[in-house]
Amino acid sequence: MAAFQPNQTISTDQPSVVVDAGLQPGRYRFRLVVINAAGNPSLPSEQIITILEPRPLVPVAAPQPPAPPLSQPAQDRSPPWWLRWRR
Fold it and tell me: Distance (Å, rounded) from C-alpha 53 to C-alpha 51?
């Protein structure tokens, strides 16, 4: 596991690097240079990484009970419109 420090070179013969979680919040610039089997270095590849401060987790609200059913509207007991107009 690599413990990154500012302006420190990390050398490895593996194709990946495991990074510890000890970096403080802030912006970091990483530069990767690969050296091939003949000893020739590649052009550097740079990435800027921003580490944010951890935020507290938001508590999950308890589920609400279902709402009671709505009351039924009053039924219209008047005669249909065609019966009302025939009088």
Answer: 7
Query: What local confidence, expressed as pLDDT, does residue 87 receive?
Result: 52
Q: Are 34 and 12 in contact (CB under 8 A)?
A: no
Neighbours of 28 (CB within 10 A): 13
Length of the chain: 87
pLDDT value of position 57:
81
Q: Among residues 28, 25, 31, which one has the least CA distance to residue 11?
A: 31
Contacts of 60 (CB under 8 A, 6+ apart): none
**What's the CA gap between 47 and 69, in Å, rounded?**
58
- For residue 40, give Cα distances in angstroms to 30, 35, 37, 47: 20, 5, 7, 21
Domain residues of the chain, as ranges? 23-53
- Mean pLDDT per block of 10 residues along the chain (87 residues) reads 75 76 83 87 88 82 79 70 63
